[in-house]
Design a protein that fits this description.
This protein is an alpha+beta fold and about 700 residues long. It contains 25 helices and 19 strands. The two termini are about 30 Å apart. The N terminus is likely disordered.
Amino acid sequence: MGLITGIRERLHFLFYALMAAFLALIIFEWGMDFSGSSGGRTVAGKVNGNPVDYQQYERIYDSLVDDFRSQAPQAALTDAIERELRQRAWDIVVNSFILEEQFERYNIRVSSEEILAAVESDMPPQVIFQNFFDKETGAVDREKLEKARMAPENREIWITIEDIIRTELMEKKLQRTLSRMVRVTDAEVNAVAEREYGVFSASFFVAPYSIAGDDALFTVSGEEVKTYYNENRDLFRQEPTRSLDYVVFSAVPSTRDSLSIRTELASLAEDFAETEDDSAFVNLQSDLSDTFEKLYSRTDFSSEAGDLVFGKHDLKAGDVIGPVADRNRYRLIKVKAVAEGKPVAKASHILIPFKKDDEKGKAAAKKAASRVLKKIRSGKNFTDLAKKYSKDQSSASKGGDLGWFAREAMVPEFGKAVFEADVGSVIGPVETVYGYHIIRVTGKDSRAIRCSEVVRNMRPSDATLQSARRRAAEFQMEAEEKGFAEASEAFEKERHETGWFTQKDEIQRLGYNHAVAKFAFASPKGSVSNVVQTDAGYLIMRVAGVNDSGYRKLDKKLRSDIRSGLVTRKKGEVLDERLSAMLEKSGGDLEAIAGSLGGLSVIHADSIRFRDQTIPGYGSDIRLIEAIIGMDPGTVSRPVPVANGRALIALHKKTYQNNVPESGKAMLGGLLLQAKQKKFEQDYFTAERNAADIEDQREY
């Protein structure tokens, strides 16, 4: 597990253990400069009034960067990754302050004798174990350890190591202190035993919400939405948010830029063909350093590029193909061998979707798909029909074209239909979780090429960049003088909206960007930004919305979500009333009730186990399983809320407790105690952090 993953998973509590883990990676690099650089800043922020040293924060950040580079040497340190690493570093520093406060609160101390005993024990502290572990013996190399401890040049470093060990031992003492606050009762152990060892036999049926009627029958007023929002405010808690309007001046490579890159790459073709060291050639000439000795199929190219590469009937070793334009880059490919690869296919489709559990909608979708198929059979153009009828927005504009794909890249039903059909055939309607598909199979191939390639990304020239930036600056002046909307109209630029986002969120379409987030949260509503360069181009933004209330705004989308939830609730209430009346009238006869509801099926299932998380012959619904294991044998339930509606259950039999050995219950009790202790620790420190007065004064 990488260090950053470890930090993310255990950040709440195990701070010093993690500090020891990554300091161990650098602590014995003798002579390392620990001074750091803070750009003249001394304070990164405050925690409960205590200043956070900027150099400490930067040192931790630098260590995380070093670890990232060692774990992924080929990966770029993108803006998004840098933002994440800086947040990790900040969280580590903040948590260290909170942990120190807990040491003081519970008067936790560690003596020099305890440190020495820990170092000499069979289970030494992590910093010792990591640096002096001998793989051959499976233990700490004591001779090497003592030699390092006694070396005069290591004296200052050993002081640092002792501090790390002291805090690690203090952390363990704090863990034990908090653990003693947690207890497990016999009732809790029995409940876990029931879930772990219980075997249940039951009959049930699920009445879907659609039985209550169409959504149109259940009106929800604006006042009901507002009341729900006000009475359930805690459901809508969030950090401060902002929304932006923005325009983009794209720095797209011009025709001249692209031609220049293509010409330069074409000039390398002869040398590429003759070189015997593809690796060295690629490393020197390619924008990507790992593009040698690769195995490619058509799925590794756009449709157009794949046709150029694989369209040659005499494709053979030694061919140099290209430059081929493919997804904003040019590729010069040297074929080393042509081999039989995994079969791939190319297809187009028309998608007619339906909502899950909406039987009427499903039937209507199937009829609509059948009508479209009939039009195709009568000679209508598939591409035109796809543009008109398909609800798959990503492919409809391309006439339904999905490009090349492997069978496992598609949902099973779709993949099976395509790979079992002949090229040129039109099949359907094919049902998947997305809806009904009409599919035209347009190609199949099983060839693969082993090759090396030189890749050049299509980049705008300096002149193209300067032109885009100049236009963006002109827009900024116009927006500040006449207004953002007016400037957008005058420059004929489309205005985009980010929607609401927090300081830590990835922004829709823009991703993570420090400059964008900093402007959004440091500027009042209506402010217009300076020109900001992003991967999308040059941006000019306006702060469209500010929400510092701590709660999500009751906007159009949230109103729609709440209204949908209230409609479902009302349907559930109708089902509860109707099923309860039918229960009383039938004396609990599930078969009779199910039959009177349009022929619903009663499912009879044995060997139901909570730990399986599924019901034989039905599937997974945790709410239904929970209801089953909470019943007494020989009883019939009242209507039970489940994933898709309401269930009625008859529990026939359950066996578990008489067959559970005391040793098994003791084991479960121990596991339950550990789980409760861990949850208590996490909740404790989450509450402490939420209650802390944290001032983030970083600038980056």
